[in-house]
Structure formats: structure tokens, C-alpha cells
């Protein structure tokens, strides 16, 4: 079965491109009448969409700077290539599985918007009543792009590139899309329970962090672990791009230029700022250096934790979320380092744990319905959703790693790992 692995990716791509071309040959997205769109909302959402796209190159710099010099290009490309792979599969099936007509609140009908059929310039009242439906679909695409890219940091320096491409495709269809449907579709299981996830605490960060943990366990430890970042300025640059793009990620999830977007914007900045300074002072409290890497990881953890809560909490509560998330994720990283789990770039302690903390604190502080307001329904719904997401993602992601490994070896050979993935996978070196 592994003999077909080297040709499988190209064959799949050719078939997908062919289907998109044939099905859409007479498809017209132009509106048939004047549309009741809000030009201000539409303008903001176009900008937010571009902001979120910028996060994936930012992630490439963030990850690329933290690995050793033999793996910079491969690590950065693992993030960057998601822009291509996920964009194509999203049009064909991903969007429909995420936002198509609901099957039991768990997954969308793959034929509802198959190949973007029906995704026009007219607004859809369920998915942004004041913006074109096509814009909503592309805004959601940017979330789907960055999620598998986040996962790649956990198995950096030891995964075959084409195996990773196949895995990210399967992850999008079988893990990301069901979680997006359950959380954000009007008939989704979690949404009907009252689960609040403003911009992707479960859908993006918990799913990526848990799949990263599963991948680190399945692929095993690197033969030689070197905790020596190759380019710290890359990490700082990547953090800045991610922080900038996150304003579109969170404030854009208001789906308009409105009050929710403004509070999400403010909360995003303050949670990240608080988490960053908490991280470095917490390190110093225990006698560790106040490092640039620590400041950058702290900033990212704050952004992760505020994501589900961004539009539901006050400024003071966002500061508290950033403070708590920084301490918990910092401790989680220290604990993980003492185990046999080789999560190369600490994806699970940062995104998985940060996402869980954010989801729980959202249910504590959410305006009018949080635990501090004396209601328990949202809090209990969030706890149950967290458990389900943990079990579902760990189980399915592990099975997907196993499936990819059956089709084509998922891990590079020992000699290729020693040479570095830049050379062995891409024939390129970082000068």
C-alpha cells in the first residue's frame, strides 16, 4: 500500500482541480438584484479576512525561528503550504461539511455547498446577514487554514512533508469541519447546548493542540533533541504578525463593524499584553531569564485564551484571563518537558491547554450567562463540550496518523532526520 504513497497526493489534487473546474464551468456568483449588504460591515470583513490570512505566514516565522538551523525551511513551509492545500479542499468539501445543512448537529451535508454551489454574493441570514455569503465563506477559510498549520509545530524536525499534507487534508475533513459545525452552525450540537466560542477556542486551538499531542505521541521522540532556536528575531517577527492578524481573527468574528468587534479588539490586545508580561515575570520569580522566546510564547498564549471569550467579557476580565492562562500554560510546558512526549514547539501546552483555559473562563465570565452571574447552564455545557472535544480529537487524530502511516511512511528515516528536513525533504538549505 505504501508504494502508491509517492503519487497519491498529486492524483488527489488533479481530481479535485478537475471537479472544481467541471462543476463550476457555468456557475455565476454575481447577484441578480440589489443586495441588502452593509458596506461598512463588508469593508471591515474584507480587511479582517486579510488580517487572518497574514497569521499563517506569521506562524511560519514564529515556528521557523524556534527550530534548529537544519529545519527552518521545512518548518516554515509546513505552515505556509496550508494556504494552498486547505484553500482548495475548503471549496470542494470543507465549507459544506462545516456549514451545510446539519446531520444530527454533528456534521454538515457535503452536498449543501459542494464546490461552493450556492455560495453567492447575496447575504445568508444565518451566517452574516449584512455581508456577502461568499465573504463569510472565505473568512472561515482562513481559520481552517491556520489550524493544521498550528499542529505542525508538535512534530517539527521529523515528519515527511507529503505525509503531512495528506494528514492536514484528513484533519480538516474529519476533525476541524465537525467541530466547526457543532460550534458555529445554528443547528450545531454545542451551539444548541449554549456553548459560547466567539472565535475558535474549541474549533481552532483545542483541536490543534490536542491533535498536536496525539501526533507527538504517535511519531515519538526526535533522535537528537536540540533546544537551540536558530533565529530568535524570526520568532519576534512571527509573534508581531500573529498579534496583528489576531485582531482580524477575534474582532472579525463579530461579522461586522459593530460594538462586539470593538470589545473583541480591545480584549484581544489586553489579554495578550497581560499574558506576555506575566510570563516573563513568572519566569523571573523562579530564577529564570526574562527571555524573548518566553515573552513571545506568553503573548501567543494570551491570544489563544481570549479567543473564545473575546466578545463576551469585560476588559478587566480579559486581563485576568491573560494572567491565569500564562501561569497555567507555563506550568504545563514545564511538566510536559519532564515526560517522554516530544512536543517540539510546545503546541499542546500553549494552544491545547490555553484553549481549554479560555473555554472554561468564558463560561465563568460571559456577560449575563456566566457562572459569576449565578447561572450554571453555560458552565456545565462548556465542561461537557471540553470533555467531548478532548476525547473526540485525541481519538480521531491518532487514527488519522495511523491511516497516513499505512498509506505512506509518516516519519522520515533516521539518516534524513540527521541531515535535516530542509535538505532531505526539499533539497534547500537556510543560508
Number of domains: 1
* Total of DSSP H or I helical runs spanning 4+ residues: 16
Helix content: 55-70%
CATH topology: Ammonium transporter fold
Name the helix and strand elements from N-terminus to C-terminus, one letter apiece. HHHHEEHHHHHHHHHHHH
Multimeric status of the protein: single chain
Return residue spans where pLDDT drops below 50 for at least 5 consecutive residues.
none
Radius of gyration: 21 Å
CATH class: Mainly Alpha
> What's the main sheet like?
2 strands, antiparallel
**CATH architecture name:** Orthogonal Bundle
Name the CATH superfamily assignment: Ammonium transporter AmtB like domains
Question: Class by helix and strand content?
Answer: mainly alpha
What order do the strands of the largest sheet run in, or round the barrel if closed? 1-2
Number of strands: 2
Write down the overall mean pLDDT: 92
Q: How would you describe the shape?
A: globular
Amino acid at each position: 500500500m505504501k508504494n502508491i504513497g509517492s503519487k497519491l497526493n498529486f492524483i488527489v489534487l488533479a481530481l479535485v482541480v478537475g471537479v472544481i473546474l467541471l462543476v463550476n464551468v457555468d456557475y455565476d456568483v454575481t447577484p441578480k438584484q440589489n443586495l441588502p449588504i452593509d458596506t461598512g460591515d463588508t469593508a471591515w470583513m474584507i480587511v479582517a479576512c486579510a488580517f487572518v490570512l497574514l497569521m499563517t505566514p506569521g506562524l511560519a516565522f514564529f515556528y521557523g525561528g524556534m527550530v534548529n538551523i537544519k529545519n527552518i525551511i521545512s518548518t516554515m513551509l509546513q505552515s505556509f503550504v496550508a494556504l494552498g492545500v486547505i484553500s482548495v479542499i475548503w471549496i470542494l468539501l470543507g465549507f459544506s461539511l462545516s456549514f451545510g445543512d446539519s446531520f444530527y448537529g454533528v456534521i454538515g451535508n457535503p452536498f449543501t455547498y459542494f464546490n461552493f454551489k450556492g455560495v453567492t454574493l447575496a447575504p445568508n441570514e444565518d451566517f452574516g446577514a449584512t455581508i456577502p455569503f461568499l465573504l463569510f465563506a472565505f473568512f472561515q477559510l482562513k481559520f481552517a487554514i491556520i489550524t493544521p498549520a498550528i499542529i505542525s509545530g508538535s512534530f517539527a524536525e521529523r515528519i515527511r512533508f507529503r505525509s503531512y499534507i495528506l494528514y492536514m487534508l484528513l484533519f480538516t475533513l474529519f476533525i476541524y469541519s465537525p467541530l466547526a459545525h457543532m460550534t458555529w452552525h445554528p443547528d450545531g450540537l454545542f451551539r444548541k447546548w449554549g456553548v459560547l466560542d466567539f472565535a475558535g477556542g474549541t474549533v481552532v486551538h483545542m483541536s490543534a493542540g490536542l491533535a498536536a499531542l496525539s501526533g507527538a505521541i504517535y511519531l515519538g521522540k526526535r533522535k537528537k533533541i536540540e533546544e537551540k532556536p536558530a533565529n530568535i528575531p524570526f520568532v519576534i517577527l512571527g509573534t508581531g504578525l500573529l498579534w496583528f492578524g489576531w485582531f482580524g481573527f477575534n474582532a472579525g468574528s463579530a461579522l461586522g463593524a459593530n460594538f462586539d468587534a470593538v470589545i473583541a479588539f480591545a480584549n484581544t490586545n489586553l489579554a495578550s499584553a497581560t499574558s506576555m508580561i506575566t510570563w516573563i515575570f513568572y519566569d523571573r520569580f523562579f530564577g529564570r531569564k526574562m527571555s524573548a522566546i518566553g515573552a513571545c510564547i506568553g503573548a501567543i498564549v494570551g491570544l489563544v485564551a481570549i479567543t473564545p471569550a473575546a466578545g463576551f467579557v469585560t476588559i478587566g476580565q480579559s486581563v485576568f484571563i491573560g494572567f491565569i492562562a500564562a501561569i497555567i500554560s507555563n506550568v504545563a510546558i514545564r511538566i510536559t518537558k519532564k515526560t517522554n512526549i516530544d512536543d517540539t514547539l510546545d503546541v499542546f501546552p500553549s494552544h491545547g491547554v490555553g484553549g481549554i483555559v479560555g473555554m472554561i473562563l468564558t463560561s465563568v465570565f460571559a456577560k449575563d450567562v456566566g457562572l459569576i452571574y449565578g447561572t450554571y447552564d453555560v458552565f456545565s455545557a462548556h465542561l461537557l463540550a471540553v470533555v467531548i472535544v478532548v476525547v473526540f480529537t485525541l481519538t480521531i487524530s491518532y487514527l488519522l496518523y495511523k491511516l497516513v502511516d499505512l498509506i505512506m511512511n509518516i516519519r522520515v528515516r533516521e539518516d534524513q532526520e540527521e541531515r535535516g528536513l530542509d535538505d532531505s525533504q526539499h533539497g534547500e538549505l537556510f543560508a
